Automatic annotation (TrEMBL):
This is NLP/P60 protein. One of its GO terms (molecular function) is cysteine-type peptidase activity. GO terms for cellular component: membrane. It is found in: Membrane. The lineage of its organism: Bacteria, Pseudomonadati, Pseudomonadota, Gammaproteobacteria, Alteromonadales. Keywords: Hydrolase, Lipoprotein, Membrane, Palmitate, Protease, Signal, Thiol protease. PANTHER family: MUREIN DD-ENDOPEPTIDASE MEPS/MUREIN LD-CARBOXYPEPTIDASE, MUREIN DD-ENDOPEPTIDASE MEPS_MUREIN LD-CARBOXYPEPTIDASE. Coiled coil: none annotated. It comes from Shewanella halifaxensis (strain HAW-EB4). Residues 36-156 form the NlpC/P60 domain. GO terms for biological process: proteolysis.
Length: 156
């Protein structure tokens, strides 16, 4: 079963990487690439979800956690399927350095001894995420807290 999941994801990745940067005429879903449309879709998601409270295991407007928000955003805005947890999401795609981040890249943080956090980079050192304290919001990687907690980034 895991082998089939890996094959499916490989096919998904190759489809995403070769997709045009504009809307796909068949399904009207923008590709996940470094285009103004990627950033626009992420900003629109922020507008729709801003302030929705954090709730561990949540997947709706009544409350959502960080990995659930990333999963829902990439699925609804770009048609990209991701696993549910931060631990699983950090294994997806390929590693990318902080200095090479592009809109749509996943950014991961070590927020505690065993606690991890994930968000989606939108550009200009900012990322979209579901924060435990303020719910869905945009934060800066240059913020002293996030700068200290930054761990790794992945490109899907």
């Amino acid at each position: 079963m895991r082998f089939l999941a890996v094959l499916f994801f490989a096919a998904l990745l190759s489809a995403c990487s070769s997709a045009p940067s504009q809307l796909n005429s068949a399904d009207k879903t923008p590709s996940l690439s470094n285009t103004p449309e990627t950033k626009n879709q992420l900003i629109q998601m922020h507008r729709e979800w801003k302030g929705v409270p954090y709730r561990l295991g949540g997947m709706g407007k009544g409350g959502i956690d960080c990995s659930g928000f990333v999963l829902l955003t990439l699925q609804s805005r770009f048609g990209v399927q991701l696993p549910r947890t931060t631990a699983q999401q950090k294994e997806m795609g390929k590693s990318v350095s902080k200095s090479q981040l592009r809109a749509g890249d996943l950014v991961f943080f070590k927020t505690g001894w065993s606690t991890r956090h994930v968000g989606i980079y939108i550009g200009d050192s900012q990322f979209l995420h579901a924060s435990t304290s303020q719910g869905v919001m945009i934060s800066s990687l240059n913020n002293s807290y996030w700068k200290q907690k930054y761990w790794l980034s992945r490109r899907l």
